Predict the 3D structure of the following.
Amino acid sequence: QVQVVESGGGLVEAGGSLRLSCTASGLTFDAYAMAWFRQAPGKEREGVSCIAWNGGTTYYVNSVKGRFTISRDNAKNTLYLEMNSLKPEDTAMYYCAADTEMYCSGYSFVRILKRNYWGQGTQVTVSS
């Protein structure tokens, strides 16, 4: 009974910043990689970033590399996504999820999508 709760979304102007948070329960948080996904209206859900169990390894899709930073605080069972230089194309519902492995890669996204278990998400809207 893993549960995640996302927060921190909102409406911002292009070039602005937001920090998303995800609090997890029902798992040994510091034993698993964690990931952020997003889904825009009419589009498929896509992986954005993932982070290894201890925060030592991170992965980003090219569209956000250099602008977004993923981090985690295992003492608080919390995952973060710092988003800077936001663009209108970043507008989407953002979701977090736990992998079943300790380390992250593009395959982390595949495993999580196959499991298809999600929280409520948090909406990010970037205006021009």
